[in-house]
Specification:
By secondary structure, this protein is of the alpha/beta class. The protein has helices at 17-27, 47-54, 80-86, 96-101, 106-118, 131-135, 139-151, 156-161, 180-197, 200-205, 219-223, 240-249, and strands spanning 6-10, 37-41, 59-63, 90-93, 122-127, 163-166, 207-210, 230-233. 43% of the residues lie in helices and 15% in strands. α1 (17-27) packs across α12 (240-249), α5 (106-118) runs parallel beside α7 and α7 packs across α9. The relative contact order is 0.16. This is Triosephosphate isomerase.
Length: 251
């Protein structure tokens, strides 16, 4: 099955509304490459203007989180209903920083995945091991547990729409990165886990990204692997020229 490559920039807690507008103006028309899906996952404050700026382009806009309830007394939270109303297409769920700093559990990730589908948002679900887990030989077990939890209760048709991002936590923002062969080994394993939950056809439809110090000079190496369908990129997505180069490198 042919899976469309997807490059998603995760801006994390960077860029004001005006900075986001300037960035988009610089990449418009240049980060739109046939055969590659371009996504920008921005802070909540920048989403309305980015969605408006992206109209008429092939660049999709995503959020970095959502609450699993549609509304309620959850001060400071943003719901899927709100994101859907904005016109956001994607939402990152279960990023390692959310798990580490904001106590997100596998159960919460599962609830958020269901909330995304309820509101016609496509989840980018992050899985990945810590350095001590990798050194203990637990990488595949950790990724399996997180993947099974994230897909719990999803129909096969929903599962096929999920984007999975394999992000070894020790490689995020450290300058260290998994080799393309190691990333392929783990991502191929994640695909086999999904096949075990559903079937080979469903697993073959799921796009699985690699994340962790991906840059313009190494993105093509990852994209050359059989099961790697794109990248979730942090720091290297913050500069227009770098983001454009990432999209072009994924062709």
């Amino acid at each position: 099955m042919s899976r469309k490559p997807i490059i998603a920039g995760n801006w994390k807690m960077f860029k004001t509304v005006s900075e986001a507008a300037s960035f988009f103006a610089d990449v418009k028309g240049k980060a739109e490459v046939d055969g590659v899906e371009s996504v920008i996952c921005a802070p909540f404050t920048a989403l309305p203007s980015l969605v408006e700026a992206a109209k008429g382009t092939t660049i999709a806009i995503g959020a970095q989180n959502l609450h699993f309830e549609d509304n309620g007394a959850f001060t400071g939270e943003i719901s899927g209903v709100m994101l859907k109303d904005l016109g956001v297409k994607y939402v990152i769920i279960g990023h390692s920083e959310r798990r580490a700093y904001f106590a997100e559990t596998d159960e919460i990730v599962s609830k958020k995945v269901h909330a995304a589908f309820k509101n016609d948002l496509t989840p980018i679900v992050c899985v990945g091991e810590k350095l001590e887990e990798r050194e203990a030989g637990e990488t595949k077990n950790v990724c399996s547990v997180q993947t099974v939890a994230a897909f719990q209760g999803l129909s096969a048709s929903q599962a096929a729409e999920v984007v999975v991002a394999y992000e070894p936590i020790w490689a995020i923002g450290t300058g260290k990165s998994s080799t393309s062969e190691d990333a392929q080994d783990v991502i191929g394993y994640i695909r086999s886990v999904i096949a075990g939950l559903y079937d080979d056809a469903t697993a073959a439809a799921v796009r699985i990204q690699y994340g962790g110090s991906v840059k313009p000079n190494n993105v093509a190496e990852y994209m050359g692997q059989q099961d790697i369908d794109g990248a979730l990129v942090g720091g290297a997505s913050l500069e227009p020229a770098s983001y454009i180069a990432l999209i072009e490198g994924a062709k």
